[in-house]
Known about the structure:
transmembrane helix, transmembrane, rod-shaped, membrane, mainly alpha, coiled coil
Amino acid sequence: MACTMSDTVVSPTTMSGRAGIAMLTLKLRAAQQDADRAEAAADAAEHAAEHELAAAESDTSVEQRTRALEAELGAALEAAAALVAAAHAEAAKIAAAMAPPIAAAPLFMAEVPVVATTLVPPPPGTAIAVTHSAGFDAEVFATVFATVFAAKFDEHLSARNAVPMVMPGYAMVPQMQPKPSFWQHAKHLDVVLIGLAAAIVVTVMFAWMG
């Protein structure tokens, strides 16, 4: 350390008045500087201690805040799980109410055996037997239809060939006949009989082939 004037031991009695005052002033300044340095060191130590204490308190508060947040998060998760379970239960009730009723299963279920059949075409030249329906006799129907058709046709021919009766003493005045329309032609007895005959023939053919 550099030697200062304050470190030099000089008796004030050996110095004049001004020199003694200057020496005392220098010593006072040196003591003030030492006091300032000691105060600065004390302030630095106090700041360091306060910083350490604040860091410890901050760690404690952070840990406590973390625990509180974890507890709040757990409670929120439990509440959300309860809401989801309630929503699922309500949806199941609605689906059960909207579902169609389930038919009761029969007490006895018989399994129908499946028989594999292979259709084999008949050899050429073989006459195919025509099977008649048990509930519909085509021959009887054809006989009845032929009888009714012949009677209606004879009646129609008789009506067409009949000679109109003329009252004596009066001359017949020809009447103007209106031109027949399409629907009058369609409703004519010949057309109706021919259409009915065609329909019955087709029905008989389907009955024989069935």
